[in-house]
Design goal:
single chain; alpha/beta; Inosine-uridine Nucleoside N-ribohydrolase, Chain A; eight-stranded mixed beta sheet; two-stranded antiparallel sheet; 12 helices
């Protein structure tokens, strides 16, 4: 059965790989639209980057919408130090020719969920949760219509990558994350605990380069760019591909293992703001709110990714 999804994203090289993975599997995934949000870089770049990626994939028919340009309650924090000034540094790609849709991304999310049968659409946030939370606050009736949310964000054992306690996507807009995690929608979370295990080792990237297509060339160039930062930071043999884990889960859920636990978002502490407080060991009686993934078959992930990219 084909999964109907909306990708909510702030591209970002790893967001780009996630979008390419989704668009490479039309037999399994129908991308209804892509909504851009401010995150890795400001909104004027994330919406542009989303369209660049669609054109690279040969899919200018995918509607792209600009959503929220700032978090709910605090100034925007961006990550040009990781992704470069464009968000897609590493390879020069032409400006998009496909249009940006006139509709606001939040309005598209609301209208799409209302137009489809309840329980048929999965939301796939790859960045801060501002668009999703705004849609839920604006139109509470849509919350019960969402099949599930599969998102990249948070951390437990790996703690933080933007502060000592917080992962970037959640830290940028913890108030939005708090709304989403308390919404009651079934949540599947891909935290750093998983994404830091899917590393761009030399052999894995050699296999992708060997595909020889423009898409494979772009993916290799993007990973070359951002892995310099991550390898220097973490001292590992490659960089994590965070966001493609969301799409890989939709295509091959057996690659991932986790626990259904309580996960709450810290919004007030100056020390741990944006922390995903995950009750991994079940030490509280708080309600279970998310399937929080803890492990992944990393080579299986790369075999899936390489096979899908070879379809281009």
């Amino acid at each position: 059965m084909t999964a109907k999804i909306i990708i909510d994203t702030d591209p970002g090289q790893d967001d780009a790989v996630a979008i390419l993975l989704a668009l490479a599997a039309p037999d399994a995934i129908e991308v209804l639209g892509i909504t851009a949000v401010a995150g890795n870089v400001p909104l004027n770049l994330t919406q542009k980057n989303a369209r660049i990626i669609c054109e690279l994939a040969g899919r200018p028919d995918i509607p792209v919408f600009a959503g929220c340009d700032r978090p709910l309650a605090h100034p925007l924090v961006t990550a040009e130090h990781v992704h470069g000034k464009t968000g897609l540094d590493g390879i020069a790609l032409p400006d998009p020719r496909m249009p940006l849709q006139d509709t606001h991304g939040v309005d598209f999310i609301i209208a799409t969920l209302r137009a489809h049968s309840a329980g048929t659409i999965t939301l796939c946030p790859l960045g801060p949760l501002t668009n999703i939370a705004t849609a839920f606050r604006t139109a509470p009736d849509i919350v019960a219509r969402v099949k599930e949310i599969v998102l990249m964000g948070g951390a437990y054992f790996e703690v933080g990558n933007i502060t000592p306690a917080a992962e970037f996507n959640i830290y940028v807009d913890p108030e939005a994350a708090d709304i989403v995690f308390k919404s009651g929608v079934p949540l599947t979370v891909m935290p750093l605990d998983v994404t830091h295990k899917v590393l761009t080792t030399r052999s894995r990237m050699t296999a992708i380069r060997a595909i020889g297509s423009p898409v494979a060339h772009a993916v290799a160039a993007w990973t070359d760019f951002f892995e310099r930062f991550d390898m220097a930071k973490y001292g590992q043999e490659g960089a994590p591909l965070h966001d493609p884990c969301v799409i890989a889960y939709l295509l091959a859920p057996h690659l991932f293992t986790g626990r259904h636990i309580n996960v709450e978002i810290e919004t007030t502490s100056s020390l741990t703001r944006g922390m995903t407080v995950a009750d991994w060991w079940g030490v509280t009686d708080r309600p279970k709110t998310a399937v929080f993934m803890g492990d992944v078959d990393a080579q299986g992930f790369y075999d899936l990714l390489t096979g899908c990219l070879a379809r281009y």
